[in-house]
Specification:
Chain lengths: 282, 258, 285
């Protein structure tokens, strides 16, 4: 019986290791495939030129600019709202019906698929508020999408600040806002920033919500009211319409590299954040 | 700083039939005693006797806990601390607190001590003077004068606790509350802090909470024995330890429980 | 605590900010429903949901094929993703040595960061030809979509199952090991059963993720508006329906797409509510 159990244990172990290896292989496969096929097609010209012939030739400069502006704007809109919500939840209220409603809102928002955000963004920002297909519409829609992520990570960071910091601050006669800005937020900042970086990573790859709100114009945007095509949208169009496989790979390579960089930055921040927390006694 | 506002009997702090509830649980029962200005008052007792609750009532730090209730009066300079409309932030700048765990804020040594005054708008050279004076009063200036910008986390436990004391002193309070300030420290650091307190009592009213009767006996001043939320007795250290009036006090100081 | 008027103003402002998530949620609900309700009223919810034909140019709006498509594709994704995901979660929680775990966990989280269009593309250039040559059919199929989606829901399933497994109290493991049980016996007899409500929640949330996925599915599923009869048939999901035609739809057609959105929204809302019940119900037990 013992030998049978041991054999079953070994088989199970092998299966579990196999599962992990399979997943790692898939991840590596995807990344390598894109990079191997896309990096050779990358060039300085590709990064700095505008597209020509619907993207069959030329570069992706407007897409890079568009992606950057769109995601940065989304972050700028969502961060104050998300961090503010987290501050309110952790510092200004106790658990009760109000916090439950707020949390329900944030959690539900997190579960809504991007296509619904796309529909919403279209009918609300593009049509109802008459912003048209524009960077503004896209940024507002993206901001709504990443809001729950920022709320969640900000709240986690704020809650991980030791209670003693707040007590010390209050005991010295500080007001609530002073305690938040001088004692709590600075301590929670690394975690909050990590959350923002992760939200950034999510927005960069977003397609469904963007294509119906920011449009798919190939031109370099000159104002916030101009439509814009982001890198993933461009990639999608190139791939599906079969315009240029080579340019598609190159575009995907840029995306993948950007996402790898963002994730590494987030990990570095997270590691620093945990190390700092360890250094401070609770 | 300590002349104004004392009531007709001259007590800095007075509890009159003070009760305190956490929700349904009563933590303090009918506490009545008085602390004159510029004295050192020790509150001793086993865990759960309400000592910390009493201390935190004095600077209303208990407000951070939900569903608290009080009855009776807790007076500082004749004014009820729990009266409606009390400026709590101002109260806390007059009543400083040192906690059991010497937690420095994740800032430099200077910024730790400057935290309170900065919140009140003090800056520039006045700020620097206050920080230096506070560090001197806490008997730690010599050890940190040349590294004020270093992180406070680099200090030892005993130093961090003296830093916490300096942090409080920088606010120029009238009353200093210490909640088991030396329970986690080595004997040498403990003695240094006790020494610093003895020097400070000439300018401040000090209340120190401890669960160690030996420390209570050593420090002197008046000692109040709290047990299960009640004030059992209060008197000068010499008398209380040689001639306790209550059986429970005697049991506590002879180590029968605690 | 007595507060100055500035403090009160800040608190009020923060309260308003805190309402932003709920406000957005309400706005989305209102506008999606407003956008699609006219068609539901005109055609009737029952006929809309059970109609077999989707022919917008003729004013025929039945989304049953898409519902079936979403269902098949999601079930397939669960078949692919749940065993693999739970196995990875067990691996990370119970089997992996610390250094290996510290590498694998972030790697799985990295999977979540890859854009869906990249997944779709990989499905397009690798999976679709593979399915076509090995299994026959057009390649654009339920099978291809299920595999791609299964991989895409891995991070969700892994992270929630991992948390559930980790929160099984240590005493359960210690009890088993002290009786001489093997690791596999401990996992299968004690840990997995104890974590089952969390794992179930991860399945439901993975389901929600799969149903809501759009771009990857469009690129590999074939997008035929027919009820699939085999895993090799091409299929269109609710999400693809919206994304494919939104670009040029007008009038009733556009309204019908919003109505599709309503159906999707309701399905996901129900799934999320079930997931929440399962998660909190498990904790209480």
């Amino acid at each position: 019986m013992n030998a049978r159990a041991k054999a079953a244990d070994r088989r199970a172990s092998a299966l579990f290791w196999g599962a992990a290896l399979l997943v790692i292989a898939i991840l590596a496969g995807i990344i390598l495939y894109i990079l191997v096929n896309g990096v050779p097609a990358l060039s300085w010209a590709f990064l700095t030129q505008a597209p020509a012939k619907m993207g069959r030739e030329g570069g992706v400069l407007p897409m890079i600019v568009g992606t950057l502006v769109l995601t940065v704007m989304a972050i700028l809109i969502a961060t104050p709202l998300g961090v503010g919500t987290a501050i309110y939840l952790t510092e200004y209220t106790r658990e009760g019906p109000v916090t439950q409603i707020i949390r329900f809102g944030a959690e539900s928002l997190a579960g809504i698929p991007s296509i619904i955000f796309g529909l919403f963004g279209f009918i609300f920002f593009v049509i109802e508020l008459d912003l048209g297909w524009s960077i503004l519409s896209g940024a507002l829609t993206l901001a709504a999408m990443i809001l729950p992520t920022i709320i969640r990570t900000a709240e986690e960071s704020l809650r991980s600040v030791p209670v003693s910091f707040r007590e010390i601050s209050y005991a010295l006669g500080a007001s609530r806002w002073q305690t938040v800005t001088r004692a709590v937020l600075p301590t929670a900042m690394p975690g909050i920033v990590t959350g923002i970086v992760l939200a950034l990573g999510r927005s960069i790859g977003e397609t469904a919500a963007v294509i119906f709100t920011a449009g798919s114009s190939l031109r370099l945007p000159t104002s916030l009211f101009d439509p814009v095509r982001t890198l993933p949208v461009h990639f999608y169009i190139l791939a599906r319409e079969g315009i240029s496989l080579q340019k598609a790979y190159a575009t995907a390579a840029i995306l993948v590299i950007a996402i790898l960089l963002i994730n590494f930055v987030a990990y570095y921040l997270l590691a620093r954040f945990s190390a700092r927390r360890g250094a401070v006694r609770r | 700083m300590n002349e104004g506002g004392q009531d007709r009997l001259g007590f800095k702090i007075e509890a009159r039939g003070f009760n305190f509830f956490y929700g349904e649980r009563q933590a303090l029962k009918d506490i009545s005693f008085a602390v004159p200005g510029n004295t050192l008052q020790v509150i001793m007792g086993p865990t759960g006797s309400g000592k910390t609750t009493f201390l935190r009532a004095l600077n209303r730090l208990n407000d951070l806990v939900p569903r608290i209730r009080t009855a009776g009066e807790l007076l500082i300079d004749g004014h009820n601390v729990y009266a409606r409309g009390t400026d709590v932030a101002r109260l806390r700048s007059r009543v400083g607190m040192v906690f059991a765990l010497p937690t420095p804020l994740p800032l430099s040594i200077f910024d730790n001590v400057a935290y309170g005054p900065r919140c009140r708008g003090v800056k520039g050279s006045e700020l620097k003077d206050r920080v230096e004076h506070a560090l001197k009063q806490a008997a730690i200036w010599d050890e940190v004068a040349d590294r004020l910008n270093d992180s406070a986390a680099a200090l030892s436990g005993g130093q961090q606790q003296r830093l916490a004391l300096a942090r409080v002193l920088a606010m120029r309070p009238e009353i200093i509350l210490l909640d088991e300030p030396t329970s986690g420290l080595d004997p040498l650091s403990t003695l240094r802090i006790e020494e610093a307190l003895r020097e400070l009592v000439s300018d401040y009213t000090i209340i120190l909470v401890t669960h160690n009767p030996l420390q209570a006996a050593r420090i002197g001043g008046n000692v109040a024995f709290f047990y299960l939320g009640e004030l059992v007795e209060n008197g000068p250290a010499g008398e209380l330890f040689t001639n306790p009036r209550d059986r429970r006090t005697e049991d506590y100081i002879t180590g029968k429980f605690g | 605590m007595a507060m100055t008027w500035q403090e009160k103003a800040i608190e009020r402002l923060l309260f308003l900010i805190a309402l932003s998530a709920v406000t957005v949620l309400i706005l989305i609900t209102v506008f999606i429903f407003r956008g699609g309700w006219p068609i539901l009223a005109k055609v009737g919810v029952g006929k809309f949901v059970s109609g077999l034909k989707w022919a917008p140019s003729r004013g025929v709006f039945g989304i049953l094929p898409m519902i079936a498509g979403s269902l098949w594709v999601t079930i397939g994704a669960l078949i692919v993703g749940v065993p693999l995901g739970v196995a990875c979660a067990v691996f990370l929680a119970e089997i992996a040595p610390p250094r290996v775990g510290a590498f694998v966990k972030p790697a799985i989280e990295l999977l979540a960061g890859i854009p869906s269009v990249v997944y779709g593309f990989m499905g397009l250039v690798i999976l679709v030809p593979f399915v076509r040559t090995v299994f026959g059919g057009p390649g654009f199929s339920v099978l291809a979509a299920a595999i791609v989606l299964g991989i895409m829901i891995l991070p969700t399933v892994v992270s929630i199952s991992y948390d559930a497994i980790r929160s099984v109290p240590r005493v359960y493991r210690e009890g088993m090991y002290s009786l001489g049980a093997t690791r596999w016996q401990t996992i299968s007899m004690v840990i997995l059963p104890a974590a089952r409500s969390g794992i179930l929640a991860s399945v439901i949330l993975g389901m929600g993720r799969a149903i809501g996925e759009t771009m990857a599915v469009i690129m590999v599923a074939g997008n035929a508006t027919l009820i699939p009869r085999s895993p090799l048939d091409p299929v269109r999901t609710l999400t693809s329906n919206i994304a494919l035609e939104m670009g040029y739809a007008a009038g009733d057609h556009r309204t019908a797409l919003f109505a599709t959105g309503i159906v999707l929204f309701v399905i996901i809302a129900i799934l999320n509510l079930i997931a929440r019940r399962v998660l909190t119900g498990g904790v209480r037990r």
